[in-house]
Amino acid sequence: MCHLGYPAYCQASVLKVRESKASERTIVVAGLPVGFVNDQLLTTLLKIHFQDTENKGGVVEDVMYPTRTKGVAYVTFKEKEVAENVVRKKHCLAEKVGPAQLTVSHFGEKVFSSVHAVLDLSVFRSQVRLENVVMDLKREISTLGFSPLGANGRISVQGSFLAIKKLKELLLLKVSSLLEKNRSGQSPRGSMQRSSHSLKSLRSSIPETLRSGESLVLDTDVFLYLKNKSGFYESTLKKFHVQCQERVDGDITTVCIKNVQDRSQPNKAKQVKELIEKYSHALSFELRKETFILEGKEHREKRNIKLACEQVSSRCLQVLVNFYETHIDVIGSSSDIYLFKKEVMKLTRQKVR
Questions:
Q1: Spatial separation of the C-alpha atoms in residues 37 and 24, rounded to whole Å
Q2: What gap in Å lies between CA 293 and CA 213, rounded to an integer?
Q3: What is the spatial distance between Cα 105 and Cα 87, in angstroms, rounded to a whole number?
Q4: Are 334 and 288 in contact, with CB atoms under 8 Å apart?
Q5: pLDDT, tens digit, for every residue of 209-223?
Q6: pTM of the model
Q7: Which residues lie below 8 Å from residue 232, measured CB to CB, with a gap of 6+?
């Protein structure tokens, strides 16, 4: 998988893990506190924690931190059995770094290992100070990385997909709270005219189905595969007679589900949400993504890569290929992705790495 944004030493280390049996002895540790201590101390604390037998630990060969995803580390053990044991236990870091409930899982190249999103907070401007909103979000989800707040109310955020999902849920709750205050005639700040205008802006930022149906946030790559390749998505909508509105915002997609039948019928939207959520969660562990970089290449080389991907995709029907101006994303199972890349490299006369 091609990764952008890794330091050179980190990229080489991750590649080494993926291409060797070390992946079987490696765990992914998420939920690490950001900003409490320096990286070197946190690395040491992780090694001590996972070598402690009370934590089902053992001899640690390597701790990779920081990584591309904020608040995530890779820990490699000497024995495969130790890695299997530690993922079965709940883990909490030492008190000196603050309360940190860790999420520990087996190493894997998940499609949504890191997500970048741009938030438009300008809808809150007439209601609250935007700086306060950002401070609240940083406090609530410390594993996310935030860029400086722009004058236009926009801010870039990067982190794991689950953290981005939690962020979106927090924002929707904040919007709903402000909408309720406006309905009650409570204007936190500014004239009634400004509040009315803000109310319309806030309403437009929330899909109508959030008030009359169910909302689901998915990784965009997982959603595109779910919709275009699995067949599960469309068949489920037809089976339960529900309507869906989909909105893609970069790396995340919001799916709003609404019952087609009258309200006296059982809430099928909620049932469909749960089914899609479970299916997409399973897909996220099975799918892998390979990226062919086009940016910076000669026109002829770009054309050859595109033609090769188009040719191979006609034979690999279970692989989703998304063409962009700067790159091509290929999503599918590990075996399918390997064969796809091998065929593309053969057609373009490049060596498979």
A1: 29
A2: 40
A3: 6
A4: yes
A5: 444 578 888 888 889
A6: 0.50
A7: 226, 279
